[in-house]
Amino acid sequence: MRVITSALCFSCFYFTCGFSQVKYEKEYRIKENKVPENIKSYLSEISFKNKIKWYKDEALSKYTYEAKTHHNNLNFSIEFDSLGIIEDVEFKIEWKNIPELTKKNIEFYLDSIYQKKKIIKVQIQYTGKPESLINILKDLNQNQRLARKYEIVLKGKENKKYQMMEYLFSNEGKFEDKAIIIMKNTDNLEY
Amino acid sequence: MNTNFKLGISTLFLLLGNSILSQNKTFGGLPQLNINKILSEKWRLNLKIESRNKFYESIKEFENSYKFQNLNTDYSIIFSKRIGLGSSVAGGLLFRSGDKYFKSRYIQQLTFVNQYTYFRIAQRLLLDQTIKVNTPFEIRFRYRMTFELPINGRSIDNDEWYLKLNNEFLNCYKNKKYNLEFRSSPLIGFKFSDQNKLEFGLDYRNESSLYQMSKHQFWLSLNWFIIL
Q1: Which residues in chain B are closer than 8 Å to A183, comparing Cβ atoms?
Q2: How many CA atoms lie within 13 A of A59 on its CB side?
Q3: C-alpha count within 13 angstroms, C-beta hemisphere, residue B197
Q4: Chain A interface residues facing chain B, Cβ-Cβ under 8 Å?
Q5: Cβ of B164 and A22 within 8 Å?
Q6: pLDDT, tens digit (0-9, with 9 covering 90-100), for A26-80
Q7: What's the confidence (pLDDT) of residue B63?
Q8: Which tens digits make up the pLDDT trace of A88-142?
Q9: 3-state secondary structure chain B
């Protein structure tokens, strides 16, 4: 009986190779030579001291390129569409660094939804014309022609249920968008 | 790398290698089939079959055995309940069928999983009680920390490889004696789909030398996780 069980266990592993997969979204690291030339030429105006890590995010109907780097003491994330046109520039900040009035509005909104919450990550997101967006990488104060928003990732308890969420608030702290972050299953970490 | 550093590393490896090679050691395979069923939003069921097979054993110097031997097979059933976003409590039973013996083990566990930008860390606290006929009752307290890192990108997507490192301390109390075991398991995993993951690597176990000579066990692990 035990030999049969062992044989079954082993044979099951080989069996798995024949399974087909369904892909919904995928992000992966890419080498610099896989990045479109117009993206590299756009960023060549900036002299980054640190290495840029390149990623490709694939969804069902579109894909984007993302450049991540540490620049001017901030963790930048620069997103480009599939044609290489810049979409937004984001960088991480602390919750306490959000202006008081904006923070108050965001908190008021979130407190009306969640009994408990924990802010995991806060990012400032700048959107605008490509020629204006490049300026924010040169100097943070050159943000006059750009729209500033706050992207907030949090863990919240709503109606006795915990969820990880990503919110987008305007510069004034007005709710704009939200998305549920699906936690990947943890079976292989528990057993 | 400077010469002193190289020398230091080589000496460390030689010392470790020598200490491992000169003592009791076992080599074998440890395939595991792990079936998970989502029962409801909060409840999960885990069924596991694990077979332990010995390929080689060295007890004393010049006394080696290369005989394949199936040591035991474990069957376990565990129910878990989500108590937070990444935390759960679980309890269940394990049955071990070995050569002319049968053991049953009661399991209670608490797990916390934290998701960071580039990796995941899980901590597991586990308490178990083992009952075997004509053998003293055994109680163990285990703490395991797992580090999981995608090889490509920031999270593990379908068709992607990942690394996993388990480190566990087992405090065992049996027959009025305390013993300590350390386990370390570096694994390479592949995610076929959200329902299907395969991991393989080494599972090193070191039984404490508190009351006896250290025992080193090296198991080749093959873990298949499926969700029904």
Answers
A1: 85-86, 115
A2: 7
A3: 26
A4: 1-3, 5-6, 8-10, 12-13, 16, 19, 21-23, 25-29, 55, 121, 155, 161-164, 183-191
A5: no
A6: 788 899 999 999 999 999 988 888 899 999 988 778 899 999 999 988 999 999 9
A7: 64
A8: 999 999 999 999 999 999 999 999 999 999 999 999 999 999 988 998 888 888 7
A9: CCHHHHHHHHHHHHHHHHHHHCCEEEEEEEEEEEEEEECCCCEEEEEEEEEEEEEEEEEECCEEECCCEEEEEEEEEEEEEECCCCEEEEEEEEEEEECCEEEEEEEEEEEEEEECCCCEEEEEEEEEEEEECCCCCEEEEEEEEEEEEECCCCCCCCCEEEEEEEEEEEEEEECCEEEEEEEEEEEEEEEEECCEEEEEEEEEEEECCCCCCCEEEEEEEEEEEEEC
Structure token pair of residue B47: 């069924």
pTM above 0.80, yes or no: no
Chain A residues near residue B117 by CB distance under 8 angstroms: 121
Place of tokens 């890419």: A30
Q: Which helix (H) or strand (E) holds A125?
A: strand A116-127
Distance CA A159, CA A184 (A): 22
Contact between residue B94 and residue B105 where contact means Cβ atoms under 8 Å apart: yes
Per-residue confidence (pLDDT) for residue A23, from 0 to 100: 36
